[in-house]
Amino acid sequence: MNTLIEYEASKLVDLFGKADDLAMHLFMDNMSMPVDVQDRLISEISALSQINQQSVGEIIEHYGQSLLPERLRW
Q: Are the beta carbons of 6 and 57 closer than 8 angstroms?
């Protein structure tokens, strides 16, 4: 996991702790994440038994890589 994803995961863990849905969406908008992916990400993070930086980072990496071929039109 690179430093950027570690930062994003840390920030999302903090926002989940505050239960601030609007701030989560605004932060993910700044990450240039599409709205439908934001909803899936929030859903998956909410389903975690323990929300921590490592698990959230893995989810962010999964969605970042899964969208790459779609963006490149492969």
A: yes
